[in-house]
């Protein structure tokens, strides 16, 4: 039976609701001071809705193995609950309180804020860990923020996560693959560690279904038999109240071009509304670059009112320093406009933001196990996302949210929650992680939402062909274990390992770094011809991967110049990020015993290494019509080379792509030409059926 907690009288009491299905607990709220300095911050803390629930939260965590906390955006869940736990002694005796987030940026931001509230240095009592960056101290850190992906990696060394006393899985509504694996594994760990406490929190989670997940049928039976402590049925706490009011505005009629609509809305706010920064949600780097260009042009032609705009992009491909600009205070008389992907959707507090503009779209993965094709598609967001986006306003003062869709659409057509990522993704990375954690029966794993068996089988098949799994579906040694250790998609990891044998690791690490970001080209709305000309300067006949090597060399020769990038339509921010990732990959490669070696001009070796990782994405040319129609060799799916590729209209006989984007057709992005005979060489099992198919050879 689920439990709800409401503030009320001094002593906790149980109250049943009308249908008798839910228990309400009431309690007073504690206003006891935390004992930490900084009075003004302390006052801010006390004003947050969650503060009234301090005693309730601590009581529920003490008495229940799992507590589900649902509270409005900005009510203080992320920043306050870990502090309440610390104050109540959950980090005594060297234990650590963990709080996971789906995104790196949120991890860094909330860790900094909590360290500031506690008056401690970040990296000591309060720390964080994200992929490639550990700002925590094993001896000192008592509250640790981390991505759920990093928590999974920690399980490889410490399967029972013994150092943690409480693990708070925040923004659980996001249902990323890592969150779902973490939830499944934590449920297992709880059986072995009854003293471990879990908190699942979100503004928009379906609390009852999450509660049912943690209350398995066996547990229900156990509950009927005996009174257990801590109570195994999860408690649900509903934190009422929100920070400040956010007024929602909808468009009257559907918009045709959301980039143009977003830009017009920003200009309208700038003209008509009082001071305050603006946060715009678009879908990806291309959109953001295009919107910035359009906004800059329109603001310029708009005259003096728009001269005070400071326009900043925000997406995962930016360097840390560039992302940090969004946190810098807005100079007097200016207005900041942050144009972001959904990385700013959860947990972030940007001080000056008063206005949010929500396009209603985000880039989402969709995988079809039948065709074995995964697309990154611009798709409508869910109501849960829309609420999170609106919740970025109203955190420090009242705000407004402009939704670029109609109210009718929001009420009647928008889905309540998004589809869990595990049900719409290629599961290759997920399977290898579970295998590395010793979970052999993957189909029988207790998922919060089950992935399709077809997707699982496809993933097992690819991993087997990559040489990562053996006949018994166990990790191979050393390849399987090495691939599992590289924190990148397994195909990239395998490409890196193969490059070691082929003697081109220096080049492949550069390629891996470029493939890890969205695009290194500057999106050029209205300047397509100039962009195409710039591409021709670097274009390699072998394809995009080799073109990246030419660009990388040019960038180094220019002295890493932003001017050089500008002149060549290359995104300077993206190139800096490539350099950053490349350095990190170099360190990992060294750890795995990979010696960096260049193949100089022998690009055949580079193409072979790419094939060794990405053979599953091989396609052959079927017809020259429509600019060149290809079919995937395994699934016979119709695909085309994306116009952004240097191989567009070149149409080599056989190619390998890195990813697909779906618009009017399935387009291959980042394409390299290969010799088809390499496929049976590197992946004989995968291409067994086609062995006798003359079109491959
Ligand atoms: N960096 C910051 N600077 C100033 N105030 C902040 C900062 N971070 C948080 N706050 C304040 O604390 C409040 C609570 O933030 P917190 O992230 O804990 O809320 P939350 O309930 O977890 O929200 P969400 O569900 O949106 O993540 C914010 O609304 C804001 O008033």
From TrEMBL:
SMART domains for this protein: DEXDc (SM00487), HA2 (SM00847), HELICc (SM00490)
Keywords recorded for this protein, A-Z: ATP-binding, Helicase, Hydrolase, Nucleotide-binding
Sequence ranges assigned to domain Helicase ATP-binding in this UniProt record: 58-223
Alphabetical list of InterPro entries matching this protein: DEAD-box_helicase_OB_fold, DEAD/DEAH_box_helicase_dom, DNA/RNA_helicase_DEAH_CS, HA2_WH, Helicase-assoc_dom, Helicase_ATP-bd, Helicase_C-like, P-loop_NTPase
Record's catalysed reaction(s): ATP + H2O = ADP + phosphate + H(+)
Protein known as: RNA helicase
Keyword GTP-binding: no
EC number of the protein: 3.6.4.13
Helicase C-terminal domain residues: 254-438
Pfam family, one: Helicase_C
Alphabetized PROSITE patterns for the sequence: DEAH_ATP_HELICASE, HELICASE_ATP_BIND_1, HELICASE_CTER
Molecular function per GO: ATP binding; hydrolase activity; RNA binding; RNA helicase activity
Entries under Gene3D superfamilies matching the protein: 1.20.120.1080, P-loop containing nucleotide triphosphate hydrolases
